[in-house]
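Project outcomes to date are best conveyed with an example. Our students and postdoctoral researchers have been running inverse folding experiments weekly, and each run begins with a structure described purely in tokens. The record below, which covers 173 residues, was selected by the lab manager from last quarter's runs and is presented without edits.
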């Protein structure tokens, strides 16, 4: 973070110093230095944002963490977020994992549904309005934190529904 800030400040000093020399060449150099300053400032902002997100426990852009019943799940692949009809569709990992969520664009977001895939033989999910589960969401920049309880049926004992807690943290790219 300090390096990017030094580059930005150094670029600004260079641009100011060279602009006083006059002439077309000096204007080109000043323009180039100005672009360097803008690039350095953008890099510094990106570094600061990433450091702040990391300090908050947010995953990096395009990544997610998923915890089910206190056990962190292994996620393979990227996370993708798509805005569709006033809702954010979140797909986590690869297609075989089947983890996804849908939240509204509201502030705070409302969880419409969550699919947690097959966990130890139980297909777990949450859907707004369906009894047995609950979910809430928070948004911090491009990061969504969704938590609650999902329900499912163990095919070995289909008469006994199951409920498991879950936490999802995903940073949209």
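After processing, the design step wrote out the following sequence:
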């Amino acid at each position: 973070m300090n390096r990017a800030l030094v580059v930005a400040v150094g670029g600004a000093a260079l641009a100011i110093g060279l602009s006083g020399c006059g002439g077309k060449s000096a204007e080109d150099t000043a323009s180039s230095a100005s672009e360097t300053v803008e690039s350095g400032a953008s890099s510094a902002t990106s570094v600061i944002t990433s450091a702040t997100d990391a300090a908050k426990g947010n995953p990096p852009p395009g990544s997610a963490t998923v915890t089910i019943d206190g056990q962190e799940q292994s996620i393979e692949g990227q996370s993708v977020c798509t805005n569709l009809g006033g809702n954010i569709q979140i797909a986590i990992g690869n297609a075989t994992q089947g983890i996804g969520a849908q939240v509204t664009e509201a502030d705070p977001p409302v969880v419409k549904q969550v699919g947690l895939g097959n966990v130890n033989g139980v297909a777990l999910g949450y859907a707004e309005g369906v009894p047995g589960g609950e979910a809430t969401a928070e948004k911090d920049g491009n990061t969504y934190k969704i938590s609650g309880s999902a329900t499912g049926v163990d095919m070995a004992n289909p008469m006994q529904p199951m409920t498991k807690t879950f936490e999802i943290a995903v940073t949209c790219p």
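The chain is about 30% helix and 40% strand. Confidence is low (pLDDT under 50) at residues 1-19, 42-50. The training component of this project remains on track.
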